[in-house]
């Protein structure tokens, strides 16, 4: 992969009929859904059939399994995902006919042009923060539109047009595509080195975030506890942008404090710029989710809602798919699925589970045996494994039992000498197992887990499919 060439969005009512190449992907199908709800004619194709294609067909889209030039039909605009190659017959047909061709992010950007757009960016926490903002605004009666990288547990959908004047979307920095969005309000959760198969290094990442700042018309909401995000805030202020901050830092506009684990929920206080501390609770473990919740309240406040009423909306947040998603329980063992695929994310989720288990033990009066953390991790990308092997190992040392699958290649070809052993050989205890075979990995997890433990499947690849399999094996 590489950074995409930015393309300016086109107003929705000027798109004409839109054909999506790769319409079955999570991001593409969400945009297609919103366009259908807004009365736009939509067609699309994907290499494989699936539930998302069937859902879009029920909404009125013309969908095809497989790619062929004739599928373009009477489309005036072609939207392509980043996975589509130049040789794709539908893309070639559109170019031969001189049709408008837009990358996915430009189509997403179109949805923001005639509404109050809120875009959530950052290396970690985008999906959860976008979900929290959406649920909070729904509670406030704002009926927001949304396009999220994972499905909301409350609605079962990853996208909806909404009927209000606000739309909330994820702003993906991984390939630079967030530079095609022009939001009124943007959140920057944190900025770290990642996606180094696309970027030359952290400085290039910061340069892209600085360019993103210029596309925000009203307010930057920034996680001030993170050094990278603080750097973005400094750039924004230098360029005359309005900046509000959130975090535990003394100078944060939305000050977080008194964080306390309550089992797999977390209690905390949030002090807005004007007002007394508000006691809050979010149904998710970990400090990182508290910060995500603080960002959501700050956005609601910027949109004109009372923070005390907005906080009540956190009670309705029950998670997003793949973001610490409960998959089931058997034999006294709970199984969760996490999209964590960067060392910082692994460390945060494992620490959160540990704190939740400690909280439960304390509430029992210390009589019950302490539950343990069992991590089943699938490294994602050869390049990321090579670059962050030591950091992955350090993060996984926080788990009591560690099972590591083979590397999920995704878009990359194998690299000589790069394997999961780069991680397993460095984990700081001997309760670590490398099982490239999925069935062997599941069997190992079922063998080591015991009542009271929490199993966490972790990674951005197909490890997500193993949660229910583990539950069955435990049963």
Give a summary of the structure in a few sentences.
With 475 residues, the protein is α/β, with parallel strands linked by helices. 33% of the residues lie in helices and 22% in strands. The strands form 3 sheets. Strands 8-7-9-6-10-11-12-13-14-15 form a 10-stranded mixed beta sheet, sandwiched between helices.
Key words describing this protein structure:
single chain, 475 residues, alpha/beta, UDP-N-acetylmuramoyl-L-alanine:D-glutamate ligase, 6-stranded mixed sheet
Write the layout of secondary structure elements.
Blueprint: E1 18-21, H1 26-37, E2 42-46, H2 51-58, E3 62-65, E4 77-80, H3 89-96, E5 100-103, H4 104-112, E6 116-121, H5 126-139, E7 145-147, E8 159-160, E9 166-170, E10 185-188, H6 202-213, E11 219-223, H7 227-238, E12 242-247, E13 254-262, E14 265-271, E15 278-282, H8 287-302, H9 307-312, E16 323-330, E17 333-338, H10 343-363, E18 373-377, H11 382-396, E19 401-404, H12 421-424, E20 432-434, H13 438-448, E21 454-458, H14 466-474
Parallel strand pairs: 1-2, 1-4, 2-3, 4-5, 6-9, 6-10, 7-9, 10-11, 11-12, 12-13, 17-21, 18-19, 18-21, 19-20
Antiparallel strand pairs: 7-8, 13-14, 14-15, 16-17
Helix pairs in contact: 1-4, 5-8, 6-7, 10-11, 13-14
Kindly describe this structure:
- This protein is α/β, with parallel strands linked by helices and 475 residues long.
- It is built from 14 helices and 21 strands.
- The chain has a 10-stranded mixed sheet, sandwiched between helices. A 6-stranded mixed sheet has the order 16-17-21-18-19-20, sandwiched between helices. Strands 3-2-1-4-5 form a 5-stranded parallel sheet, with helices on both faces.
- Helix 6 packs across helix 7 (227-238).
- The model has no long low-confidence stretch (mean pLDDT 94).
């Amino acid at each position: 992969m590489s950074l995409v060439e930015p393309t300016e969005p086109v107003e929705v009512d000027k798109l004409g009929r839109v054909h999506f190449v790769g319409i079955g992907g999570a991001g593409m199908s969400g945009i297609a859904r919103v366009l259908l709800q807004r009365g736009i004619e939509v067609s699309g194709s994907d290499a494989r059939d699936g539930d998302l294609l069937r859902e879009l067909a029920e909404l009125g889209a013309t969908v095809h399994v497989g790619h062929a030039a004739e599928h373009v039909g009477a489309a005036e605009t072609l939207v392509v995902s980043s996975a589509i190659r130049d040789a794709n017959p539908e893309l070639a047909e559109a170019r031969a006919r001189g049709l408008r061709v837009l990358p996915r992010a430009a189509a997403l950007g179109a949805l923001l042009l005639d509404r109050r757009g809120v875009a959530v960016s950052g290396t970690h926490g985008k999906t959860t923060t976008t979900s929290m903002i959406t649920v909070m605004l729904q509670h406030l009666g704002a009926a927001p539109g949304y396009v999220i990288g994972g499905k909301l547990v409350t609605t079962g959908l990853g996208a909806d047009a909404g009927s209000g004047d606000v739309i909330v979307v994820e702003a993906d920095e991984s390939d630079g595509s967030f530079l095609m969005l022009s939001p009124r309000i943007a959140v920057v959760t944190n900025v770290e080195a990642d996606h180094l198969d696309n970027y030359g290094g952290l400085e290039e990442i910061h340069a892209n975030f600085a360019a993103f700042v210029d596309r925000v018309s009203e307010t930057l909401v920034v996680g001030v506890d993170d050094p990278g995000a603080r750097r973005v805030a400094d750039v924004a202020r230098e360029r005359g942008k309005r900046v509000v901050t959130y975090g535990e830092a003394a100078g944060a506009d939305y000050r977080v404090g008194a964080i306390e684990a309550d089992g797999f929920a977390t209690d905390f206080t949030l002090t807005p710029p004007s007002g007394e501390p508000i006691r809050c609770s979010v149904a998710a473990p970990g400090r990182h989710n508290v910060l995500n919740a603080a960002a959501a309240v700050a956005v609601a406040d910027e949109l004109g809602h009372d923070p005390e009423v907005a906080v009540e909306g956190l009670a309705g947040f029950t998670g997003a798919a793949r973001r610490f998603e409960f998959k089931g329980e058997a034999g006294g063992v709970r199984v969760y699925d996490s999209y964590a695929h960067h060392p910082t994310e692994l460390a945060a989720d494992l620490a959160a589970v540990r704190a939740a288990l400690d909280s439960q033990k304390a509430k029992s009066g210390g009589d019950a045996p302490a539950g343990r953390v069992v991590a089943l991790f699938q490294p994602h990308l050869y390049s990321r494994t090579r670059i962050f092997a030591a950091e992955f190992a350090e993060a996984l040392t926080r788990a009591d039992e560690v099972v590591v699958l083979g590397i999920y290649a995704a878009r990359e070809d194998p690299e000589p000498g790069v394997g999961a052993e780069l991680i397993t050989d460095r984990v700081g205890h001997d309760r670590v197992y490398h099982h490239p075979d999925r069935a062997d990995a599941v069997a190992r997890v079922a063998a080591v887990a015991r009542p009271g433990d929490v199993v966490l499947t972790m990674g951005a690849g197909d490890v997500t499919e193993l949660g229910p399999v583990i539950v069955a094996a435990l049963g």
